[in-house]
Amino acid sequence: MKIDYSKKTYRLSLSLMCAAMTLVCLYIATLVPGGRLALYFLAGMLTIPLISEKELGTSILMFIGTYLFSLLLVPDFTSSLPYLLLFGHYGIVWYFCGKTKDKLTAYILRLVYCNIGMVLIYFFASQIVLDGFLASIPMAWRIVLAQAAFLVYDFLYGRVAEFYRIFLRDPLLSE
Question: How many CA atoms does the CB half-sphere of 35 hold within 13 Å?
């Protein structure tokens, strides 16, 4: 039997699962300072199921709703700023840039977008992401590390999206 993934119940349950897991990641990010960036990365990757199902409107609503709920859930509202400024909507931009026929252009667009997001995070939420080790590194090395982090994040985003399509899509959305 072929499953119709376009049913509203599938879209709703998938978006609620992703939103709940994203909220858990954002909440844990406030509790575990050492793994804060990794949890923001993970929270950003939780939009992959919606983007893979081409539910862009639903993913935008999930992003907005998750951010608003995170303001109620996390103790410090500035802890949600990295999610708001970059990680929450990076997947939507990743999807649209992936529609470009030229892979280099798509990569450059994602790099520029990510750098803009990282600059916004630096100016508005640096006290959250620059703790301990990162705060002691000179600015030039932070920029180099940020570019390396983008390379890793972009690569992992593509691999996780592929992993979802191949292995997780059918078990998550089956009856």
Answer: 10
Which residue from 118, 123, 126, 119 is spatially nearest to 153, judged by alpha carbons?
Answer: 118
What is the DSSP annotation of 71-135?
HHHSSSGGGGHHIIIIITTHHHHHHHHHTSS-HHHHHHHHHHHHHHHHHHHHHHHHHHH--TTGG
Sign of the CA dihedral with 168 first, then 4, 97, and 92 last: negative
Would you place residue 1 in the very low, low, confident or very high pLDDT band (cuts 50, 70, 90)?
very low
pTM over 0.90: no
Question: Which amino acid appears at position 3 of this protein?
Answer: I
The residue with tokens 């960036």 is 37
